[in-house]
Amino acid sequence: MKLRVSAVQYHLHSIATFEEFENQVTHYVKTAAEFNSDFILFPEFITTQLMSIPHANQVAPAISQLPQYTQWYYTLFTKLAMETGMHIIGGTHVIEEQGRLYNVAHLFYPDGRIGKQPKLHITPTEVEEWNITPGEGLQVFQTDKGTIAVLTCYDIEFPEIVRMAKAMGADVIFCPSCTDDSHGFYRVRYSCQARTIENQVYVVTTGTVGALPTVDFMRANYGQAAILTPNDVPFPQKGIMMEGDINNDMIITSDLDLQLLYEVREKGSVTTWRDRRVDLYPDWEKLTKKNELIGL
Predict the structure, then answer these.
(1) Is residue 153 annotated as part of the catalytic site, yes or no?
(2) From the candidates 22, 119, 126, 157, which is the catalytic residue?
(3) pLDDT for 17-52, tens place per residue?
(4) Of the four, 4, 50, 62, 218, which is 20 to 30 A from 273 by CA?
(5) By residue range, what is the domain housing residue 49?
(6) What is the pTM of this model?
(7) C-beta atoms surrounding 16 within 10 Å
């Protein structure tokens, strides 16, 4: 099976109304639709742009006020997914549940369903400055174009969680990200590339670019989209299917062939997934199947 994916290098800049955010998001989605993409990925924390909207008291809103836009966010992305027939990973949006804030990636299906994956590993800034709570569970999402997982930024730096996603059947990992300098960017990027080799999966990643001068901790962004593959003969040299220009406002698109993944897992130059030493460390496939049987 083949699928076409697009990834947005989302340009953060100050806006005056929600309609400006809506117009910008719609522009990117319509661009991907013109390329007949099956999936489009937005970066982490794109809705922090809404915090730049001027308020009457001239006080910049806190991250705790972002959940007030949740229904608008859901309505916008659901409408676009249904209109275009694409699966939209709408970056992440901060939601509130039982008095706690979660940084949640959202998958908007063409049929109107919404899948949610809270960020599982929380950075020191998210904890200390924004009081974000880590999510508690990993899930994969079944689509008519294959099984995917969405792991946000810092999550991809933890090999165990990607092993689990692969054991649960994910062939493509989408990684929305937001990093403020080159150090953070390359931590995420190199981790993404390592995960493709370890698990023989595709990784699609992207980040925010631009700046929000009035929003604390969003004043600087360093980002680049990339569509990454395992490092083996059927794939491009260096394992890079496509990448954007660093810090530019743009969208990239490429095709992924799932059959190639299945072939290299069986008879590639290396067979890293098959050659795991599960006698020495956990066999996530067996643990996943066991948990499914007992209803966890």
Answers:
(1) yes
(2) 119
(3) 999 999 999 999 999 999 999 999 999 999 999 999
(4) 4
(5) 2-293
(6) 0.96
(7) 9
